[in-house]
Amino acid sequence: xxxxxxxxxxxxxxxxxxxxxxxxxxxxxxxxxxxxxxxxxxxxxxxxxxxxxxxxxxxxxxxxxxxxxxxxxxxxxxxxxxxxxxxxxxxxxxxxxxxxxxxxxxxxxxxxxxxxxxxxxxxxxxxxxxxxxxxxxxxxxxxxxxxxxxxxxxxxxx
Length: 158
Prior knowledge:
Elements: H1 2-18, H2 33-46, H3 64-74, H4 84-90, E1 105-108, E2 113-117, E3 122-127, E4 131-136, H5 139-142, E5 145-149
Antiparallel strand pairs: 1-2, 1-5, 2-3, 3-4
């Protein structure tokens, strides 16, 4: 019984220790979000129409997580370059009624693909067949959505 209690406490400690330390203000609720979204969209547009190369994070080619990382990094969100799965685990969750808001990161297909939400109908991503592009949340993509995560909005007033 003591071992079970110890394991539960240990798991709880590891869970809270592993939670990302990010700003409380994320997504469109942050007062500075409009300026940040403008910066994010400008950065995205700089990297559109680049070829897809697995494992690449720019500047001339990208894979999906490399594209998301490059856009975030170049927009002031300094996070570690990683896989789509690890982005999903490290970014804060989004409430269901806020999923398709601009700037959220969208995850697909067993967490093997990710992109950045533009609006309820479209998202930016790096696709093996088209490279970095703006795509529609059509039936194909919508049925593959696994979840959404919020981008911590950096202080861009500096």
